[in-house]
Amino acid sequence: MKESCELENLHPSDTRNNKLHLNDRSFHDWYRFVLSFPPHLVRYYLARFNVDSAMTVLDPFCGTGTTIVEARKNLISTYGIEANAMAAFASNVKSNWISQYRKVKKTAIEINTKANDLYWALKGNYLTFSDDQNAVLLGNSINAIPLHKCLILLKCIDSILDRAIKDLFLLALADVAVHTASNLKFGPEVGVSRNKKLDAEVFEAFFKKTLLMSDDLESVSEINTPISSIIIKKDARISINPIPYKSIDAVITSPPYPNEKDYTRTTRLESVLLGFINNRNELKQLKQDLIRSNTRNVYVTDADDQYIAKGSSVDKIANEIERRRLALNKTSGFERLYHRVTRLYFGGMKRHLIELKPFLKDGAKLAYVVGDQASYLQVLIRTGELLAEIAQEIGYRVVNLDLFRTRLSTATGAQLREEVLILEWNPKGRKIVGKKDNRYDQIIERVFFAHYRKGITEFEFNREEFELFSKELNIKLPKNLGDIVYSYRYRNSLPEKINALLEKGEEWIIRSAGRGKYRFSKSTLGRIVPNLRLSKIKVLDATPEIIRRYALNDEQALLAILRYNRLIDIFLEITCYPLQSHLRTTVPGMGQVETDELYIGLNKKGAQYVVPVQAKGKADLLGVVQIEQDFAICESKFPGLVCRPIAAQFIEDDLIALFEFEKNDGEIAIKEEKHYRIVANSDLSDDEIKNYNQ
């Protein structure tokens, strides 16, 4: 599985994807973590994965934006996920290429003048951090006069009205605060230098930094192509909504390694300066949102280790670490946690890889830059091999482990490998994760059986119960509690213990019952799936090629095909006009609901209709709850029109199932189902047209 790959020696010009010919300094030096993975590595995998401008790249541990910036240089749309607010801010600013580079220079001069004037006006009355802020910092991180100058710049920057330019200058200040003003030094861990800076040329360094930024922005000012770069501040172990399902073509990322490096220390000073962390509680929250990669962010309530099966390779290594600790009589609090943080790290990465799957296109390629570790009592952790084993277990195809470079272990003197784990998402090879691994299953089972009594067919429960039972089960909840219900409506089956209570032909569904309220109900029409025995009606393709090329996901592509080919009109035999996409509204007794597309229809007699449409990709689930919500939207918002709800689903890339629904005695029923195959002119024969005419 391993392959020696001279990635470290690649020159920037060696990769064919570097379209803009910007050097490695541009944008990356605006602000970055020390030891972040190099830009040329991103370019190498963009080329190797054949990523082009019609595709979308994700970095789920995007840090300060190496992948995001390199993809943007190559005119590729990106998403970035980052839990650290300071790093997410840096990525967002670096990927927002504002066009007013001349205004940036002018503003830099103005801020420099204001800062100098304010410095002399204060006459030694030093600005400083609060006690709560100081409590978060490493001791002696920055001396009084350099800090005073940084806070003066912060005051001046706050007066900038243009949000984009203001953010640009805040990022410049963050960089100057660390690399010019502070006493910090960077090695394997962040520390404080013995040589303290009593003063520093803060204003001068800030002015130079803003001019550098202006020059970089000018270098890309001729690029008018709209490129989407969206940074989401989020824990990568939690479902990565609002990224569309099946929209990601490639993943290139460098997650944390399992070691004793506290990643929050790397950005502590600038996080406090810019207001992202103001006290110890906010620091704790940041640590809880990160993969557990060191003992300083392990908490009693952590439960990622439940994803690691007994007897697995990770479990054996964790046991070996604990055996060695006992043999060496190591008793410190941190040493006692070494075996646990190992399980938590790999359990957290497993959670991440599970949550990532619904967002990957079939055949998506993934590159994870990881490194071996020997920090825990010199027990060697082959990170790449262990992650490969985990990925394969949950349905990914392991393509290779590319050797990136080696480094010397400070603990053992041995050569440790840094590797790039190459994966491919292959749904046909997907395995169902054991129920003990699924926290959603544990929570929904507990909620269900707290209310269910033999013989009942429905009952209500509140969203707050998720929090109550998660504490009881010692499970960390997702920040978006609604994702638990969403996953069972549209992605996953309910646990076997719940489904075992059903008769043949029945299904449990979860309806909305008001704000923060839901209702479990038995239904004979839960999941709606196409009848594959139906005939296929051929329709000549009227979809513009440019739309097909740039549709980012199945749902978007399907809605476009419906619209350009007038399939709703053909199916319903009325003339339809698109009114609104992704209508999200509130319905009394249901709460917030959403439909993918809304049409208004008209027949030859003048009757008017409202047509809500639900669009689903091949792997998505269509449920009766969505149709009930569409009826409710029509009744609430369009009471004078006849409601004709439609569901559309890809069966194959060019084969679409269309359903129309009606209500019979208050129950949802399928009124009609047709399958349409979108074809080129050469694929529709004269004989087929003759048959359709007859």
Explain this structure to me?
- The protein has 4 domains: 221 residues, Rossmann fold, CATH 3.40.50; 119 residues, no CATH class; 86 residues; 158 residues.
- Helix content is 36%, strand content 23%.
- The protein has 23 helices and 21 strands.
- The protein has an 8-stranded mixed sheet with strand order 1-9-10-8-7-2-3-6. Strands 14, 15, 16, 17, 18, 19, 20 and 21 form an 8-stranded mixed sheet that branches. Strands 11-13-12 form a 3-stranded antiparallel sheet.
- It is of the alpha/beta class.
- α4 packs across α6, α4 packs antiparallel against α8 and α15 crosses α16.
- α2 links the parallel β2 and β3.
- The N terminus is likely disordered.
Helix-strand blueprint:
Elements: E1 2-4, H1 39-48, E2 56-59, H2 66-73, E3 77-82, H3 85-94, H4 101-122, H5 131-136, H6 144-157, H7 163-181, E4 184-186, E5 190-192, H8 202-219, E6 229-233, E7 248-253, H9 268-273, H10 280-288, H11 313-328, H12 333-336, H13 338-356, E8 360-371, H14 383-393, E9 396-408, E10 415-425, H15 439-451, E11 458-462, H16 464-473, H17 482-490, H18 496-499, E12 507-514, E13 517-523, E14 536-540, H19 545-550, H20 554-564, H21 567-572, E15 575-587, E16 591-602, E17 608-616, H22 624-637, E18 642-643, E19 646-652, E20 655-664, E21 667-679, H23 686-693
Parallel strand pairs: 1-9, 2-3, 2-7, 3-6, 7-8, 14-21, 17-18, 17-19
Antiparallel strand pairs: 4-5, 8-10, 9-10, 11-13, 12-13, 15-16, 16-17, 19-20, 20-21
Helix pairs in contact: 1-2, 3-7, 4-6, 4-8, 6-7, 7-8, 11-13, 13-14, 15-16
